[in-house]
Amino acid sequence: MNAHTDPLVDDYLRRLDAAASALPAHQRDELVSEIRDHLREALRQTPAGDEAAVRNALERLGPPEEIAAAATDPPPPGQAVAAFSQVNGLAIASVLLAVLWFAGIGAVLALAFGYRARRQIKNSAGGQTGSGLAIAGIILGWIGITILVAGVILISFHPNKPQ
User: Fold this and answer.
1) Of 2-6, 61-65, 125-129, minimum mean pLDDT range
2) At what angle do helices 131-156 and 105-123 cross, to 10 degrees?
3) CB–CB of 8/51 below 8 Å?
4) pTM for this structure?
5) Is 157 helix (H, G, I), strand (E, B) or coil?
6) What is the pLDDT of residues 58-77, one digit of tens each?
7) What's phi and psi for 20, nearest 5 deg?
8) Which partner from 55, 61, 68, 82 sits 20 to 30 angstroms from 38, CA to CA?
9) What would the pLDDT profile of 22-48 be if each residue is shown by its tens digit?
10) 127 has which bridge partners?
């Protein structure tokens, strides 16, 4: 099916063009062209007149107003636009504390930082990485806690302990 000849697609692209009117002409044309090409490829295998397939493809894209808004919204002030994700600092701190202060307060902090880092990474929607580091910090933190508890138990039950 030729996506650009379908009335639903034509209407969608007109709405997209109107919604993107705040963009410079070359950007707006490029956006509409990319969406047109995407739809053409998505609908290439569908039979002509398959309105359900066309509606499905358009629904997957979302409202044209949202696409235009995403293309026109500048990043928040003070936030750099990055093409890569950033490693979560708490994940790094978690591993370092777990390794450097294997038992004791370092292990407790490694656990706290590791769990918090995992939550931040999960909520960042791909903006942060370091989940493996956070998990390593959590595991080493629990090992450190276990060693600390085992040491306390051994010392308290040692037969030659001073009284």
Assistant:
1) 2-6
2) 160
3) yes
4) 0.47
5) coil
6) 888 788 888 888 877 665 56
7) -95, 20
8) 82
9) 888 888 888 888 888 888 887 887 777
10) none
How far apart are alpha carbons 94 and 81 in whole angstroms? 27
The tokens 């037969």 sit on which residue?
Answer: 159
- Is residue 148 within 8 Å of residue 106, measured between CB atoms? no
At 3, list the tokens.
Answer: 């996506």
Q: Cβ of 55: how many Cβ atoms within 10 Å?
A: 12
Which DSSP string corresponds to 44-75? TTSPTT-HHHHHHHHHHH--HHHHHHHHHPPP
Can you tell me the distance from the alpha carbon of 145 to that of 62, in angstroms, rounded to the nearest whole number?
49
Task: Give 78's pLDDT tier (boundaries 50, 70, 90).
Answer: low
Structure tokens at 71: 């293309």
2: exposed, middle or buried (C-beta count within 10 Å: 0-12, 13-18, 19+)? exposed
